[in-house]
Structure formats: C-alpha cells, structure tokens
Amino acid sequence: MSSAAEQEAVQQPVREAERPEPVEGARSTRPAAGFDGPRRPVPVWPGVPRPLGACFRAGPDGTMGTNFALWAGGAEAVELCLFDGPGPGSQETRVRLAEPTDEIWHGFVPGVLPGQRYGYRVHGRWDPWTGARWNPAKLLLDPYARAVDGDFRLPPEVYGHVRDWPEQHVADTVRDERDSAPHVPKGVVVHDDDDWADDHRPQTPWADSVIYELHVRGFTRLHPEIPEELRGTYAGLAHPAAVGHLLRLGVTAVELLPVQQFAHEDHLLRRGLSNHWGYNSIGYFAPHAAYAASGTAGRQVGEFKRMVRALHSAGIEVVLDVVYNHTAEAGELGPTLSLKGIDNRGYYRLQPDARRYTDYTGCGNTLHVVRPQVLRLITDSLRYWVTEMGVDGFRFDLATALARSAHDVDMFSPFLAAIAQDPVLRRVKLIAEPWDLGPGGYRTGGFPPLWAEWNDRYRDAVRDFWRGALPDVRDLGYRLSGSSDLYARGGRAPSASVDFVTAHDGFTLRDLVSYDRKHNEANGEGNRDGSDDNRSWNCGAEGETEDRTVQALRRRQMRNLLTTLLLSTGVPMLVAGDEMGRTQRGNNNAYCQDNETGWVDWNLLQDPGWRALFELTSRLIALRRRHPVLRRRAFFSGHARAADGLRDLAWFTPRGTEMTEGDWYAPTATLGMYLSGRDIPGRDERGAPITDDSFLAVLHAGDRPVDFVLPGPPWARHYEVIVDTSREEQARAPGPAHPSGAAITVPARCVLLLKAAD
Prior knowledge:
Elements: H1 3-11, E1 53-58, E2 64-71, E3 77-83, E4 92-97, E5 99-101, E6 104-110, E7 117-123, E8 126-127, E9 132-133, E10 148-149, E11 186-188, E12 211-214, H2 216-220, H3 234-238, H4 240-249, E13 253-256, E14 260-262, H5 266-270, E15 281-287, H6 299-313, E16 317-322, H7 339-347, H8 372-387, E17 393-396, H9 399-402, H10 414-421, E18 429-432, E19 451-455, H11 456-466, H12 474-480, H13 484-487, E20 497-500, H14 509-512, H15 548-567, E21 571-575, H16 608-626, E22 649-652, H17 661-665, E23 670-675, E24 680-683, E25 689-690, E26 694-700, E27 706-709, E28 718-724, E29 737-739, E30 743-746, E31 750-757
Parallel strand pairs: 12-13, 12-21, 13-16, 16-17, 17-18, 18-19, 19-20, 20-21
Antiparallel strand pairs: 1-2, 2-6, 3-4, 3-7, 5-6, 7-11, 8-9, 10-11, 14-15, 22-23, 23-26, 24-25, 26-31, 27-30, 28-29, 28-31
C-alpha cells in the first residue's frame, strides 16, 4: 500500500466490508455473544452500587462477603471473575453482575473473604472507529482495587487487538480473542480495619518544609544496615536506619516517586529493562506490589501504612508523586489492562475520529478528567490515600493535563475546582508539576492558591549562575527571594515555589558538575532520550577523573548549589543521595535503571569528602530551621519600615553599595543579598512579633577572588562568617568579626553567609 493510501486508511473510518479479516486466535471482530467462560454455582445477591471497588462487609442477613461495584458506562454486560489462587494455573470462576445502577454494575458475593483474587470481563461492541474497544477475552484490573497480586508482563495475549497483525497501521482494529487471564495480575480483596487514632500527622507548615525526593526501592536497596529481606521495600524505608538518615539530615517530608501500582512498558521489557521510576500507573488505589516485603496477597497495604506511621513518628510527612494524567495502557496500540476495556470512550480523551488518542502527556493517552466518572476516580483515590493510608500530600505529575477543560488549560477546570472545595484534599499539601506536552501546557506560576509548584525557573537560573551563563542577575534575584514575579498574585505566598536544583528527572547534583553531555547509552535508545538542555558544567573534564583540582572544584560547586538552595526563600527540595555525592555516571534519564545506577550508594558516606557534604547539608537545614528569616511566610516588601531606612531585603554590589537598575542589567558574577530579621511579617503562636538575626549572603561565581565591601549602618556594624563554601570542612564557630565598611576577600566560586550584628 502506498504511503498516501496508508495515511487515508488511518484517517478515515473503515467500512465493515473493508475491515481486515482476523488472524488465527482472533475469532471475530464482532461483539461476543453470551457468557461462555468457566463457571460454577456461586450465589450473587444484588448488593449496592457504592462504594466502588471490592468492599468486604456483612450482607443483609449478617453473612460476611464482598460487595463488588464497577462503573462501566456503555457496557452490555459485566462478569466478575474469581480466582482460587495465585499464578497462571489458578481456576477461574465467572459470576455475572446483573444489577446495573447508573451504569454501575454491582453484586454481593457471600463467602468471598479478604485475600480473594479477582478481575472483570466487560462485554460490549468492538468498534474502534467509534472508540468502542470492549473485549471480554481480556481480564481487567478493577480501577478501585486496593491491592494487586502479580506483575504486569506484556505478551500478545494482553492486547485487546492483535498486536502482531502484519499491517500495523490497522492492527488496533482487529480484535484478539485469546484469554489474557493467565498473563495479568489480579486485584485482591482487602479488609481495611486499621485505626489511625494513634497516628500523629506532623502537619508541618509549608514555610517550614524541606522536601526530600526519594525512590522507595532505590533509597533502601543497598543500605548496609537494613536487613537484606527488607531492602527495596516499604518496610525498608520504615527501618530505623533509613529513618535515622532522614532525621540526621533534618528534612521534614519525603516525596516518594510513584508507589501506586504501575506496569512496565513493552519496549523496556523487550530490551531486558523495566520501569524503575514508576510513571506508568494502572492501579490508583493499590500500593505497588513489588515494593512489599510482606507479600502481595493484600499485606502490602498494611506494610505501607506501617511505613507511614514510622515516618510520622519521626516527624516526617509523606508526599506521594502521583500520575493521574495517563495510564499504562498507552495509545491505540497499547495493551488492554483496565480502563481501556471497561469504557475506552468514557475514560480517555480521544481525537475527533475516536480511534486515536489525544496525547498531552507523551505517553500515548490522556485521562479525560472533565468526565464525572474520571474525576470521581481521581478524587476518590486521593481521599483514600489521605484518610486510609495516612499520606500528607501529593505531587501531581504533568498537572496541567489534569487542569484542561475541553482542550485548553483552565485554572477554573473541574479538577481544580473539585480539589479546592473538598474538605479532605484542600487541607493536604498539593504540588503541581506545572506543565504538560500539549499546546499552552507550560504554566509555571499559574496555579491557584492552595497549590505549590515545581519552579523550573529557579532551577535554570541557579544552574546558569554557577556555571557562568547568566547575562545578568535580574532573574537570580527573583528566584533567591521567593519568585514574587511568579507567585505574588492571587494571595499566594513564597511557599508556592518549590525550589530545586536537581530532581529525579535529569542529572544528579554530582553529575551536574561532572558532565557537559548526557550519557544514556544504557537505556538502549541510542542516547536520544533525556533532555539536551542540562545547563551543566563538567569543571574541565567529562565524567570521573583522577585530577584532584577538578575534583575539588566539583565539590565546591556542589556546596555552592546546595547552599544557594537552602538559603533561598521558598520550599527547598533535595534529591536522595545528592547530599552525599550520588552519581548516575552521566545518565540524565535513569527511568529504566533498576540497578546501581538508580540506587543510592551508601558507601559514599565512608568518604570524608562526601561525608563533609552531608554534614554541610544537615547544618544548612538546621540553620534554616532556627531562623525564620530564611523561611518567610510572606514576600519581602523591599520598603523601609523604620526611621533608619532599614529594609527587609536589600541587594548589594561588591562595592558595598545598593544595586541600582543599571547594576541589575549589567553582567556580574557577584551578588550580595541582605535579609533583615528585624521586622518579619506575621506573629508566633502566642501572638508575639517574629524577630530574628539578620544575614548577608554573598554569592560569587567568578573564577577569581573578589573584594566585597561590607555594608555599613543601618544594615550592620559588624559581620561574622558562619558559612564559607570554599572550605570543605566548615568551622564550628563563627569567624572573627569584620567591621562594616571593611573589604573582605571572597574566594573564587564561593558562597559566604555572614551574620549581621549591631
């Protein structure tokens, strides 16, 4: 077929007579008739349509059993499939749910107890040209399953269409009727009877928060003090050795990379790799089964809760990185695992021809959050993780995809409105990744109150300053002082800015100062994956080197970056292992590296240099905790509030003079930032005014030392150096007092933090 003809075949609906004949194993492209699966007599009572999912409870006469309820809009029939054990050899019994209410198919099955494995088969039309992709040969995961038993592998049988159809441009239109049940995980009935009365949520105010992004498996997999059988699991993260590191560091919250049940992509499995990060969700209520040390027959739920309790007991909040923008079912050529087979048209955004998917995520599909049943799935899931699993907040991957109305991003969208009015969700921490891949999808600074955002403009400005690539320091000034240009509108506060220099996506901090280019060959994609815009500098050699001068410079640059982050106004976010020099050897997209590349190397703490970096990071976090001027709840005014002309924020040149408009536009490698603790907005818990010490931070990115004149009254009469990043080992006590007006020498590529005093 010519390319023009192929394009026409993709774009135009195919008439019934033109539809291709099925291959062997695909009996028909027409809807299946009747229920022809295995069955044994199982009593099914009508049950109730709410709550959705599998709910273990007492029946009308007190008999214990499980109520099953599945929303399947447009379906012709729904079968509940019960399995008598784990693994592909388990016996399946199909039970028809004959009680639809408002498109919810439901039934109560007496005698079905916690631990029961189950799935659904949903009957309906097979007509991909109108978006209908029902196929009862495919066992489907309950979207509300609280636990999942097994792992997703993707043989041809799990695809609703014939995956290997020779004409791939129409392969998605040919229904595959091979049974997928032996090849897919099952949901597990869970009895949720935990009492959270003894759990005390830390409820750390936003302004006091320091977030630590970590991967449950990667953080614990190599920890020598965690028992081998617990490494890589929720129980491993709850272990005193893991919690102890977090306490010594001083962070207030862990942000866990996705822990909702996810599946591995087919292209990774074919290359012998797997999805390590987990941004490929398929079960929005279930803790990812592979991270459970206690097994996958429902016990992972209790293990996750015990992890949350252990962290709460240490005063550490738990924030989940959640992926509600797309699912693991990908596009029209992806597998049929759950939503696609329940109601493809109801759950996903489809293109006008209905056969193809609208993809704002780069992952093949986008959930249609405007639809009530999809919005309900997401908000039900969020509330479940808060009320039943104990978590304290969420970071939303590609959040603007959720904020779209019909097409465009809308900050009054149903999703954002639902969150704002929800009595549970509006009280927890909400963090947006404020972009997606669709038109108009970049919205940093655009989310409404209640929301914090990942501030990528902070990342870029700080990286560029320390590698000498900023044309001037205007942008840096905004970023250091809370990004008021982005967040001061609509009643938002500096804590709306989640400041970060590194994240899971990109170079580690060590790699940021060790590589000019990405090195992703191990991912098997020809080094084409991952960003080319890294804003990194290798300090004179690409990759690891024995050159001690380069090594020393790299460690100094890491100290500069961490110190800048932890002295900035906003909410700082660190990445696990950056505080001790973790490297991915130049891989800036280690999403498929479930190995030493993606795991934290705890042996680094045995190196005196990396241990010193950890101690500096811990010291800076403690300094931030002691001084409210470093974690302000309101933006700086920049105006004098006293007769002496002292302002809450002032900027200085190396000459000791305040920055003029011309200075902001001039190239410079040096910036002085004065933070006054005299008049901090707000009051303490007893209503008293908040006062603090004042500080002068001098950031110098030049490759030669510079003399910096210390500002005189009203700013201060003398200054004491308390942090000097030119030194690997920090002094335990402040340095000698320097009188105002004196010129101090700031070493090359260095941050000095000075305490100001009268």
